[in-house]
Amino acid sequence: MQSYWMQTTGGQTALELRDMPRPEPGPGQILMRVRAAGLNRGELIAGHGLQAKGGAAKAMGMEAAGEVVAWGADVTGFQTGMRVMGRCPGAFAEFVLIDQREVMRIPDGISWETAASIPLTFLVVYDMLVQQGQLKSDQWVLVTGVSSGVGVASLLMAKALGAKAIGTSGSEAKLERLRALGLDLGLCTHAADFAERVMQTTGGKGVNLIVNTVGGSVFAECVRCMAFEGRLATVGYVDGQLKAEIDIEALHAKRLTLFGVSNKLRTGVQRAQGVPGFIAGILPMIADGRIKPVVDRVFAFEQLAQAKAFMEANQHLGKIVLAGRP
To answer: Quick one: CA dihedral 130, 214, 208, 189, positive or negative?
Structure first.
């Protein structure tokens, strides 16, 4: 089979399409034929911070959708040809292994491309908004960098949960498209200058939950936007700024909660903990259309380099997907 690999050296990335043996499922694993796989900025953008600074080449891709081909020992409940999706390392390949605890059935009517945009992104958002963020109906959420894959998913899930949403983006055109998806207030800015508008919009109370996809350059401004007992989730740092000022007085007086969301250091058991709740609480909203994942563009399997360049150009809204090999 063919599989994409990436070597990172000195902050530069090189892609390589390799011929590899088809993997064999071990205990607790299923083998899936990949029909589509989602791109994720943390893996692909040089200097993003989540990306390794060097070392051995690694198989690329982190989430995919496809058909069950085979399974290992101790795996039950699957049939050959079953349509499934899940988080899985090495997803930019013809076949990939998935931990059975991560596997989710694809709802009827959902395309391969849409399904491939769900597993990692929406599970991360579920962690931020529901598991840790405790977002409730009628609360306010602020999403910095709202036009990104995680940003759009955060908006869609927040609205489905009955919350009100504010988002920042450097593109007024993207914000206009997101207003049609339920964005209550779009602020066109790349700068840390949005707290005053946020406080005005929320009647001086501030927002209950913040999803910061941008990084340290807006962290202090985000804190200034927080309501009493507000929560701030850090999920990315595309600005490359890994340090930021923390207002200790506000943290103390407002009883604020600051938390991070990442899969990097979690064990398989820890990553899988949110899957049952997501399947029960969020997947039905995707199945019936209350949440409609946004796929900006689909690239052919041979076009990963072009897909990566398109992501680096930051022109997309929502997710970029790599189609499976024909």
So the answer is: negative
Do 149 and 88 belong to one domain?
Answer: no
Measured distance CA(133)–CA(155) in Å, rounded: 14
CA–CA gap between residue 54 and residue 49 (Å, rounded):
12
Please, are residues 53 and 82 in contact by the beta-carbon 8 Å criterion? no
Whether residue 270 is contained in a domain is answered as: no
Given a contact cutoff of 8 angstroms between Cβ atoms, the answer to whether 271 and 102 are in contact is: yes
Q: What tens digit of pLDDT does each residue of 253-263 get?
A: 999 999 999 88
Same domain, 184 and 308: no
CA 46 vs CA 14, 145, 265: distances in Å: 10, 18, 20
Q: Within a 10 A sphere around the Cβ of 108, how many other Cβ atoms?
A: 7
Tell me how far apart the 2 most distant CA atoms of the chain are, in Å. Answer: 60
CB 15 within 8 A of CB 39: no
pLDDT in tens, 94-150: 999 999 999 999 999 999 999 999 999 999 999 999 999 999 999 999 999 999 999
Same domain membership, residue 221 and residue 235: yes
189: containing domain: 122-260
Res 49: pLDDT: 45
pTM score? 0.93
Number of domains in the chain: 2
For 226, half-sphere exposure in the C-beta direction (CA atoms, 13 angstrom radius) is 30
Q: What is the CATH number of the domain that holds 75?
A: 3.90.180.10
Residue 200 and residue 105 share a domain:
no
